[in-house]
Amino acid sequence: MTATETLTLSEIESLAFDALVAAGTSPENARPLAVATAMTEADGVASHGLAYIPIYVQHVECGKVDGQANPKVAHPRPAVITVDAATGFAHRAIDLGFEQLIPLAKEMGVAVLAVNNSYNCGVLGVHTQRLAQAGLMGFGFTNAPASIAPSGGAKPVVGTNPFSISAPGSDGTAALLIDQSASTIAKSEVMKHAREGKPVPQGWVLDADGQPTTDPDAGLKGSMVPSGGYKGVGIALTVELLAAAMTGATLGAVASPFSGTAGGPPKTGQFFIAIDPEVTSGGLFQEKLADLISAFRDQDGARLPGDGRQSARLRAATEGVSVNAALLERVRALI
Amino acid sequence: MTATETLTLSEIESLAFDALVAAGTSPENARPLAVATAMTEADGVASHGLAYIPIYVQHVECGKVDGQANPKVAHPRPAVITVDAATGFAHRAIDLGFEQLIPLAKEMGVAVLAVNNSYNCGVLGVHTQRLAQAGLMGFGFTNAPASIAPSGGAKPVVGTNPFSISAPGSDGTAALLIDQSASTIAKSEVMKHAREGKPVPQGWVLDADGQPTTDPDAGLKGSMVPSGGYKGVGIALTVELLAAAMTGATLGAVASPFSGTAGGPPKTGQFFIAIDPEVTSGGLFQEKLADLISAFRDQDGARLPGDGRQSARLRAATEGVSVNAALLERVRALI
After folding, report:
1. What are the beta bridge partners of residue A322?
2. Min CA distance, A39 vs chain B (Å)?
């Protein structure tokens, strides 16, 4: 059995903050990322929580991220906010953008935020959730270095590009959260199998010639299988249009990797749309949302997207989060 | 070989218009639907072109659609347009909404259109394409009577709910068009197999107990398989949130069917988002879009979503469209 230690969410946040600052991140840039790290652990997505802190620290040290970046916010049209993340952490750029996006969406009925010159934003649902907590429908899109090939092709042109939707409940929480990538499986799972020298199941990856393989290393040199075939390519392309072409960020096809120390800043992007659903629905949104959620919940065994994370979050708030002891040791050594 | 006749696009439009008006549709309501019918035939989507005219006529006659409806447009917030389609054709409601949406999106940088009390809007890409032709990124969503069950459940709760994205080229055309449903295959294909008494391939439908079946009738009483499993449910749910919950329209779980004469108006909805991508990208959009399209096209055999429809459209403009002669006879008999 793996040794673990139980931490409160504020202990996780402090730990992440201290490690980031020790590596040379400014406190203003470290705080939003530390908060997101605690929220990610609360949601039960351990792969993207504290486990990423050593990578973030390495990326500050090698210059893939500028820990001291000062993101620039602009307001080029009444309902548009843009942020140049200046190759700093995405989280600070998104935080600064949301400060203006949220009141603007309430005033205008809809507003968008385009972030470029950015970096891996971690779990997308952590960001869209905040829009829902502010009473807005939140839509988020982020691009990543290319790993999905076009239908009929073999060379990756778009990332596993996730999107996330979060719907506001009547009580200041996210009533529903969708957060899914365009591939059948997360690339991190393939990398884990490669590290452990284990074959992957059929349907996860294709080799460099576009042929099915169970060899994770061949898959990492080839491409990820898009979820639902050409429809997964359509999702990845939609997200690429929003997060890269519509923000002026670097396309996944030419972006430097999110892992390792080579290639400099990836300069990828994020796009968010915030809409006041009571305005667009003429005041019917909460009633319709409740009926839609009931249609799922009233069936025995049926799963509503986001339910797993929601129950993890409720549990974490009172019981804390169990963290791998070896990982904790590595993070504490960074401080 | 099936007998066909070649018609120009304006002949198709006139035929559709005359049949709709003969059934009691007002000219203002018939025109946008006739134009969309010609555009749909031009795009090569014969299943949703003239083939739908007899169904539309039947639905005007039985009251599923009010052919004389007067949609009501409102502007509840600076960047939001809403249209109550008043149980009329979706096309007129969308037309009236777009008249205000397009200039508003250019002024504000982004604007949205929510349509409720609506009806089947036909091919969604026909609508988003118009936003791209106006120089905007167009996003469209429409809901349909439920036919997809939740993961772990068997009873349909959301429709095959398509979404469509259209990107503006620099020349006033749609440079790229994505238009895809949340199921592995269109429901109309299953209905066609049922009519012809042929089994469907595995992976298209599930029976009423949620079990795989190749019997199309069992599938029509059960549910459609979501594309990519739970991720397809996530797409259908996203579209349901936008097109129904956020417009105040009827949820797919309780909407009357789009086929047959029972149940009265379905009162489903549409949602459109229009964004000026040159504003959000700081003027880099066309360059990024061209690079993204090249990344697909530079690979032998790779397919870019929308290429098939685009070449059909170019061909149709000069050569006209070949239409099934028996269908033409049926449509002409309606006039």
Report:
1. A6
2. 22
Give B231's contacts in chain A (Cβ within 8 Å).
180, 227-228, 232
ipTM reported for the complex, 2 dp: 0.97
- Output the pLDDT for position B188: 87
- Which residue out of A189, A278, A281, A322 is catalytically annotated? A189
Alpha carbon distance B243, A295 (integer Å):
17
* Selected residue of A209, A241, A247, A293 to mutate for chain B interface (largest B Cβ count, 10 A): A241
The DSSP result for A237-304, as a single string, is: HHHHIIIIITTT---TTTPPPSSSS-SS---EEEEEEEE-HHHHTTT-HHHHHHHHHHHHHTSTT-B-
CA-to-CA distance for A38 and B312, rounded, in angstroms? 52
Q: Choose among A114, A231, A254: nearest Cβ to B228.
A: A231
Exposed e or buried b per residue across A259-290, where buried means at least 16 C-beta atoms within 10 angstroms of its C-beta: eeeeeebbbbbbbbbbbbbbbbbeebbbebbe
Do the Cβ atoms of A80 and B109 come within 8 Å?
yes
Residues 6+ apart with CB under 8 A from A155: A149, A223, B299
Is residue A27 within 8 Å of residue A89, measured between CB atoms?
A: no
**In B, which residues are within 8 Å of A255 by CB distance?**
none
Task: Give chain B's domains with CATH numbers.
Answer: 71-172+228-298 (3.30.1370.60)
pTM above threshold 0.90:
yes
Could you tell me how far CA B119 lies from the centroid of its own chain?
Answer: 11
pLDDT for the residue B89: 98
Contacts of B228 in chain A (CB under 8 A): 184, 227-228, 231-232
Q: How does pLDDT run across A37-64, given as a tens digit for each residue?
A: 999 999 999 989 999 999 999 999 999 9
pLDDT above 80: residue A1: no
